[in-house]
Amino acid sequence: MNCIIVDDDEASISVFSQMAKQVDYLTVVQVYSNPIDAIKTLKNGDIDLIFLDIEMPGMTGMEMLKALDSRPHVILTTSHTEYALDAYDLNVIDYLIKPITLPRLLKALEKIKQHSHSTDHLNAGHDYFFIKKDSALTKVPTKDILWIEALGDYITIHTKDHRFVVHVTLKSVENKLPVNKFVRVHRSYIVHIDNVNTVEDTTIFINEVPIPIGALYKDNFIKRLNLLQ
Predict the structure, then answer these.
(1) What is the pLDDT of residues 23-63, one digit of tens each?
(2) Radius of gyration (Cα) for the chain, nearest Å?
(3) Which three-class secondary structure state does DSSP give residue 17?
(4) pTM to 2 decimals?
């Protein structure tokens, strides 16, 4: 799960970043002290979760949320309790009071899992897509997908025998894939973990085809591999 931290308190950021490293499925992509810069990143559509401080100079966390047309999951962080009712009116996942403990963080993250399970059953294990090709709908089992590549407003789904070009975003497809089998490795690539043959530094090979690993995604990808050490 890719997340960003938006907070102007360096001490809080340091503690929270270290805590997040203990959660194997959570990757801190970037930290921002300025909400305006965070909004620019969110437009790329690669972020699943925002840890958002409420009281910041220039723009508060509440104002930032109201400025977003669409947004990922949001967990608010603050030293004060008086914003709780306003926060839940904005449909945030949770509201954490600083100093935040690891058990409390894990409880908040569990709410995201429950929310995703109830709103997107495909994440729970749908094992095929129907894709329009020519004038027919073709069934494509997700187990047959090798990797998916973004090309502007389109994606290309690569299987052993076919390539399917579909007019959707990579993010929308990512949300519909079995989460235990697929992993984002680059802004433009999702791979099926079972089909990865070799990993060399910043490159994955699937059937001898090189696929880049983005720096922001590498740690999460390595965590998902079944490493013998």
Answers:
(1) 988 889 899 998 988 988 887 667 889 999 998 888 989 88
(2) 19
(3) helix
(4) 0.55
The CATH architecture assigned to 2-119 reads: 3-Layer(aba) Sandwich (3.40)
3-state secondary structure 90-146: CCCCEEEECCCCHHHHHHHHHHHHHHHHHHCHHHHCCCEEEEEECCEEEEEEHHHEE
Q: Summarize pLDDT for 85-110 with one digit per residue, the tens.
A: 776 667 788 999 988 999 999 999 98
The CATH number for 128-224, chosen from 2.40.50.1020, 3.90.1170.50, 3.30.365.10, 3.40.50.300, is 2.40.50.1020
- Decide if 49 contacts 38 (C-beta within 8 A): no
**What is the CA 68 to chain-centroid distance, rounded?**
17
